[in-house]
Amino acid sequence: MTQVKLRFAPSPTGYLHIGGLRTALFNYLYARHHGGHFILRIEDTDRTRYVPDALENLLRVLQWAGLENDEGPVLGGASITEKGENGPYIQSHRHEQGLYRHYAEQLIHQGQAYYCFCTKERLDEVRDAMKSRGETPRYDGHCRNLSPEEVKRHLEAGEEYVIRMKLPRDTNVTFHDAIKGDITFNTDELDDQVLIKSDGYPTYHFAVVVDDHLMGVTHIVRGEEWISSTPKHVLLYQNFGWEQPMYVHLPTVLGEDHKKLSKRNGDAAVEQYIEKGYLPEALINYIALLGWSPKGNEEILSREELIKAFDFDRISSTGGIFDIKKLNWMNGEYIKKLSVEKVVEAMRPFLEQAGLVDASTDEERLRLAAELYQNRIEYFAEVPDIMRHLFVDAKDVVYDDEAKEALATSEAQELATCLAEKVKAQDALTPEFTNGVVKEIQKEKGIKGKALWFPIRAAVVGSTSGPDFGKTLLILGRDEVLRRLEVAKKFAK
Length: 493
Description:
mainly alpha; 21 helices; about 10% strand
C-alpha cells in the first residue's frame, strides 16, 4: 500500500497567516491520522517577492505550533538543516540542479510545451486589445507554432524567452475534489501558462507538480483559491504520465465581516497571536475547527484527539468564520488547566515589559497573583491591565468613579481607618490575618454587604469589585496597603 504523504508548501514572502497555519494543520493531521509523512517544502522561485528571514520566521512558528515535519527544512538553533530523502526541499536549491528545466524540455520534445519570445511590450498590447473588446486577457498563442528553424534562430540571437505549456484546444478537464466533488474546466477558458520564466526559474504551477510527484505526495490539501489552477496541474500530470494525487480544496477562512482573512489583515498573522501570549495548543485546537468539525459536540480537543478524529469527510464546503471572542474563550479554558508555575512563567515577561515587575520581584507575589487571576485570563498580553493594581505604587493606583463614590462618606473613611489600624498592628501580613480582618471589622462596626466591602476594597485597589481580597492584601504587603489607605483619604468629602 502506498504511504500517505502530504505537504505544506508556503512561499517565504512574509509572516505565516491563520489560513496558512490551518492548511499546514490539516495536512499534518491527515498525515498523522493515517500514519503517513508530513512534508514541508519552501516554494521560493518567485524571487521578486522573497522576504529575508521569512523562512526562519516560518520555521519558528511551525515549531511553536508543534507541527513537526517528517521531511524538509528544520530549525536547529541558529541554522537551518534538512531531513528526508527527497531533498532539497527549498525550490531555489532544486532549480540550481537544473531539475525543472529538464522536465520543461521533456514537454517541448513531446510537443506539449514551446518557447515563447514575445516581449513584455507585445504581451501588454495583446492584453489591452483583448480588454478593449471585452475579452478575458490571455496569451494569443503567437509563438505556439513556430517552426524548429525559427526557434533556433531566436535562440542563437540570444533573445529572451519563456517556456509555455501548449494546452489542447477545446478540451474538458475534469478532476475530483474530496470536498466539492467533480469539477470540470474547458481548456479554451485557460491560458498557455508559463512553465519557465525569463529568469530561468520555474513558475509555481510547474514546480509544484514536478516536486509533488518526485516527493511522492498522495494528497494535495490547499485553499480553494487554487481550484482554477488545478486543471493545468492535471494536464501536466497527464502529459508526464504520472499518477494523479487526491485534491482537497479547503474552504476560505473568513473574518467576522465574512470577507477573506488575509495577510493584509493584521489579525491574520500567526506571530501576532504568539506575541499576545496565546497558547499553541489553544490556537491549534481553534483553527482545527475552522471548516472542520468532529462527530461529537466536544470543542476542547487535545492534539491526540484531533489526530484520531480528523478526516476529510467532516470538512465543510463553506468558509469558517474566525471569531476572536471564541478563540479568547478557548484560550482561557486552556489557561485554566495550566499549573500555577506555568501561568507565572507565561505572564512574567508581559509584566516585566510593562514595567510592573523586575528580577527582584518576590516569586510568591507572582504566584499569588496567578492563583488570583488564572480563571480570568484569556491571553497573557492582557495580564498587565488585569494585574496593574497589584504591582503599582500607591500614588499610581487608578480609582474608578464607583470607587471614588464609595470612599466619599465619613462612614467609608472610618472603615478604611479601622483597616489601617489593624494592618499597622501586624509585623507582616499573614493568610490568617488577611482572611479574617474584614470579618473583624464587620463585627466591630456592625456593617456588612456592599456598605462594608465597597469602601474597603476601593481604598486598597481603586475598584469596588475584584477577586479574593485576602490574597490581594498578601500580594501588596503591609507597607503598600498602608500607603494606599493613606491615599484613599483624599476622596473624603
